[in-house]
Structure formats: structure tokens, C-alpha cells
DNA sequence: ATCAGTGCAAAGTATTTGCATATCC
DNA sequence: GGATATGCAAATACTTTGCACTGAT
């Protein structure tokens, strides 16, 4: 079930604003302000906040935190689970994924006996361009 | 070189406020408000902000983000690198570490050819008490 | 037609800053 | 003594909320 179907099933409506916001996030994680700007402020800032909160609540979007203290909103795609590498120098962001990761989580789960439902991994360093 | 020695070498001073704030963070990650409260508001809120910013800049402290949107400040201890497990239910936080982790980072580094300097891993799920 | 969502403005929080005073080295 | 820090209050930035109106179903 996709994002909008899920929202509909809960009695929420698919508005033009919601579609546009979701569309914007598709390319890469963005801050509230960036989303607002890139929609030419045609969508009210309060609505951007409300929409993102709704998306997060419905697990269509997740919040990620790079080192800069700003929250960014990213589309959640089960089939494309990945992490981020942030360059400490130029602040560019790269998507990362690894096969070993599942093992790590399993390993932690076994040892700790905790039920791990989700995780977030952020990497920092120097990117190719800045080396 | 410890935190204060590092600060001194950069011309910063060791004040009572800074010592008390660092002391507070030692036990566990805390929000600005929690630190301010636990010092009985004897240290001005603006000073707490300024001090934490200074500590973060000097890598004595790092910011961590659990799911609740609140920033928490944690003492950085090279010798005791760890991650956090946050219970989605009771919001309790547990420290986690794993041997496999180094391998994961190395793996990613090899494949991506990026220079990874640091990373942050946050885990979410259900803790022992809430199962 | 109905009820959820939007825009707008105002209220609430969170964080930063300017400046006079206090304090570390 | 001199430069760095602090406290206080004001300024700025960020986020939420109430309400009348609009629009999706």
C-alpha cells in the first residue's frame, strides 16, 4: 500500500499540497525551509509542517539528522533502505548501503536480546571531491 | 589531552559553569533544558547554549538525536565508543556496542572509497521491560 | 453535504546576540 | 590588567495552534 492509499484508509485526504510536498522530498532529504522555498512558498509554511508531521506519523517519511543540527525529511522506501555519508568539508550528502549491515543489526539483536525495529546510520568524513 | 586542556590551549577559560555542565553530561545524554534544570538554573540558559556549542566545536561533546526531535548532548569518549537503543514505547535509552561494527565501517569504506572519519548509529525498538 | 485541510495571524518554544559586568590567567 | 565569559534582556528563528474558509470525497 503506497503512501496515499495508507492516508486515505485513515480518512485523510489527498490534496495538491500533500502531493507536491511528497514529490519534492523524492529527490533527496530536505529541510522544512528548503521544501517551502522549492514550492515557491505557494504552500503555507504551517501546512508544510503539518503535512510533514502527518507523513512521519504514517511512516511515509522519516527525519534524519546530519551534523548541522537541521532536521531533514526523507522519503521512506522499504525497498531501498540506505544511509548517508556527509562530507565534513563541502557538506554534500551521498547515499550508502551495505550488505554487512543486516548482520550487524542481527548480531546486536542476538547479544542484547532487544527487539530492534529500525535503525539509522549516519557516516561522516571527506568525500571524493574534497580529498 | 583532556577537554579542559584542549580548551585552554585555544585560549578558552575553565569556568565554574563549564565544569558543572561537563560534569552533568557525564552520566547520560541530556537536552539543554535538562542540563539547565539539573543545575537549578544557576547557570544562565544562554551560557548553557554557548558552552555546549563550544564543547561540540571542540569535540568534547556530540549531539545525538533520538526519535523525539530533541537534541541531546553526550560526552565524547574515544575509549568508550557506543551507540544507543531507544525504546519506542517507554523511551528509555540503552547503550549498545558491537564488535561487528568496525567491520561494517571498513566494508563501506572499501566499497565506497570514502574516508569515513566518524559515524553515528541509533537503534529503535522495544526494550526488555516493554516486551 | 460533510468533515478534513489550508492559509493567515498570533502564540509558543527554542536559540542567538549585544552589552555591561564579572572572572580567569 | 586585559581578554574571555557570564547574566540579563531583547532579538531572531523555529514550530504550533485557533479560526474562518476552502476543497476532497
TrEMBL record, chains A, B:
Coiled coil: none annotated. Its cofactor is Mn(2+); Fe(2+); Zn(2+). It comes from the Bacteria. Signal peptide: none annotated. Binds 1 Mn(2+) or Fe(2+) ion per subunit. One of its GO terms (molecular function) is transcription cis-regulatory region binding. Keywords: DNA-binding, Iron, Metal-binding, Repressor, Transcription, Transcription regulation, Zinc. Fe cation binds at residues 81, 102, 119. GO terms for biological process: negative regulation of DNA-templated transcription; regulation of secondary metabolite biosynthetic process. Zn(2+) binds at residues 87, 90, 127, 130. InterPro entries: FUR, Fur_C, WH-like_DNA-bd_sf, WH_DNA-bd_sf. Belongs to the Fur family. PANTHER family: FERRIC UPTAKE REGULATION PROTEIN (PTHR33202:SF7), ZINC UPTAKE REGULATION PROTEIN (PTHR33202). This is Transcriptional repressor. It comes from Candidatus Roizmanbacteria bacterium RIFCSPLOWO2_01_FULL_35_13.
Amino acid at each position: 500500500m503506497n503512501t496515499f492509499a495508507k492516508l486515505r484508509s485513515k480518512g485523510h485526504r489527498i490534496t495538491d499540497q500533500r502531493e507536491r510536498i511528497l514529490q519534492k522530498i523524492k529527490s533527496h532529504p530536505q529541510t522544512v525551509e528548503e521544501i517551502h522555498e522549492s514550492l515557491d512558498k505557494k504552500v503555507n509554511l504551517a501546512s508544510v509542517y503539518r503535512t510533514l508531521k502527518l507523513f512521519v506519523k504514517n511512516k511515509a517519511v522519516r527525519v534524519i539528522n546530519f551534523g548541522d543540527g537541521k532536521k531533514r525529511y526523507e522519503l521512506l522506501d522499504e525497498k531501498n533502505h540506505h544511509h548517508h555519508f556527509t562530507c565534513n568539508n563541502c557538506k554534500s550528502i551521498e547515499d550508502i548501503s551495505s550488505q554487512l549491515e543486516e548482520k550487524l543489526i542481527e548480531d546486536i539483536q542476538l547479544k542484547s536480546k532487544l527487539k530492534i525495529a529500525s535503525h539509522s546510520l549516519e557516516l561522516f568524513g571527506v568525500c571524493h571531491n574534497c580529498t
